[in-house]
């Protein structure tokens, strides 16, 4: 497909976009809260990918390469907007202590909201790296190594963040609901 | 009896536990209701995490919008380069005209013509003829032709560099 696009096949790039837009959408939508910026960022990711397609070395999967562009674009976008707070980036092996008690508020939930939508709200409250890893691992079925390559993190750290995020979500849900409901 | 830790449970469900470790964890899960409940919780969480949130959808026009932007950017780059070329050419013509207005080259040309060419090889033998040919031309025209040639070479090099960087811009250019 890449060779086709490089040869000037416009339809080839349209197919490329349609094939990978779900992946890009997952990353951008999970990382950027502002809805009006999301679509523009997705477009920007595909334009950047197009401009750098000739330099793609085939050393990694296209999906990993594209996800890296999407991740970096989101980080740059959030930094420019100063939306990326220091606390939002996990810099060490610190746990999510304190997260549980402070973040649960009955007002965060709508009366008729189901568990799934409440879970999504809890995910949005997690640090950016945790929620990105959750998305790449569960929605896009990427391996620890691929996620590590995208986010420039060691595999062990990816695994550790994933475990912490899931443990945290499990505890959050347990506090709100009886186990039987889940 | 030691219960499975959160990490062990998650590893078990992710399929990261292999061989004897997996067998032992599986046996424990069969007999321990506490760990069974924990595993059920994690399993439930996993299945929900695998579902795409409803808002995570892009418009169907994304690919068309991206292609349109790429085309516009490529055309914009071509126009920009043409504009730069035009400005460079204009600047050069203005500079040459100013130079010729204030400086008379004819004595210099005469001096160059008078220098005897060393007869070292065939190229140097024809050098006086080349000089005579250029001296016969209007100086303004000669310099303009040289400047035009230089610009063509520069734009050719620039074009090669740009085509390496953006492969598809070559098609439009």
Based on CA atoms alone, the radius of gyration of chain B comes out at: 39 Å
Average pLDDT of chain B works out at 77
Through-space gap between termini of chain B? 74 Å
Portion in strands of chain B: under 5%
What this model shows, in words?
The complex is a heterodimer of chains A (182) and B (173). Helices cover 66% and strands 0% of the residues of chain A. Chain A is mostly helical and 182 residues long. The N and C termini of chain A lie far apart (43 Å). Chain A folds into two domains: 2-80, Rna Polymerase Sigma Factor, Chain: A, CATH 1.10.1740; 86-176, Arc Repressor Mutant, subunit A, CATH 1.10.10.10. Chain A is globular. Chain B has 173 residues and is mainly alpha-helical. Helices cover 78% and strands 0% of the residues of chain B. Chain B has helices at 6-14, 19-31, 33-49, 62-102, 106-114, 122-136, 139-165, 169-172. In chain B, helix 2 packs across helix 3 (33-49) and helix 5 packs antiparallel against helix 6 (122-136). The two termini of chain B are 74 Å apart. The A-B interface holds A 5-6, 8, 10, 13-14, 17-18, 21-22, 25-26, 29-30, 39, 42-43, 46-47, 50-51, 53-54, 115-116, 119-120, 134, 138-139, 162-163, 166-167, 169-170, 173-174, 179, 182 and B 6-7, 10, 37, 40-42, 44-46, 48-53, 55-59, 62-67, 69-70, 73, 164-168, 171.
Question: What is this structure, in a nutshell?
Answer:
Chain A has 9 helices and no strands. Chain A has helices at residues 2-6, 10-31, 35-51, 62-80, 99-103, 115-125, 128-139, 144-151, 155-176.
Properties at a glance:
heterodimer; A: 182 residues; mainly alpha; Rna Polymerase Sigma Factor, Chain: A; Arc Repressor Mutant, subunit A; 2 domains; 9 helices; 66% helix; B: 173 residues; 78% helix; 0% strand; rod-shaped; disordered C terminus
């Amino acid at each position: 497909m890449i060779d086709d696009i490089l040869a000037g096949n416009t339809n080839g790039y349209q197919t490329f976009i349609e094939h990978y837009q779900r992946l890009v959408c997952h990353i951008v939508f999970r990382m950027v809260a502002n809805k009006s910026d999301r679509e523009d960022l997705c477009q920007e990711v595909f334009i950047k990918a197009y401009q750098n397609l000739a330099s793609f070395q085939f050393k990694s999967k296209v999906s990993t390469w594209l996800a890296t562009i999407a991740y970096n674009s989101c980080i740059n976008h959030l930094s420019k907007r100063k939306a990326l707070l220091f606390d939002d980036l996990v810099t060490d092996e610190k746990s999510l202590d304190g997260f549980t008690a402070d973040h649960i508020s009955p007002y965060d939930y709508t009366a008729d909201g189901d568990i799934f939508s409440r879970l999504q709200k809890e995910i949005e409250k997690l640090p950016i790296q945790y929620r990105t890893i959750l998305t790449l691992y569960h929605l896009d079925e990427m391996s620890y190594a691929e996620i590590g390559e995208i986010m420039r993190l060691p595999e062990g750290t990816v695994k550790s963040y994933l475990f912490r995020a899931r443990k945290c979500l499990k505890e959050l849900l347990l506090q709100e609901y009886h186990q039987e409901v889940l | 009896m030691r219960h499975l830790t959160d990490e062990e449970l998650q590893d078990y469900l992710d399929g990261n536990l292999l061989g004897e470790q997996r067998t032992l964890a599986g046996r424990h899960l069969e007999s321990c209701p506490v760990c069974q409940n924990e595993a059920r919780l994690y399993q439930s969480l996993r299945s929900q995490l695998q579902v795409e949130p409803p808002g995570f959808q892009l418009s169907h026009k994304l690919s068309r919008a991206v292609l349109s932007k790429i085309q516009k950017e490529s055309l914009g780059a071509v126009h920009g380069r043409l504009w730069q070329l035009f400005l460079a050419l204009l600047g050069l013509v203005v500079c040459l005209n100013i130079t010729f207005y204030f400086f008379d080259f004819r004595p210099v040309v005469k001096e160059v013509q008078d220098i005897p060419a060393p007869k070292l090889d065939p190229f140097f033998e024809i050098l006086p003829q080349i000089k005579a040919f250029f001296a016969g031309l209007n100086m303004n025209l000669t310099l303009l032709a040289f400047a035009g040639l230089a610009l063509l070479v520069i734009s050719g090099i620039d074009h090669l560099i740009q085509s390496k960087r953006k492969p598809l811009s070559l098609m439009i250019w």
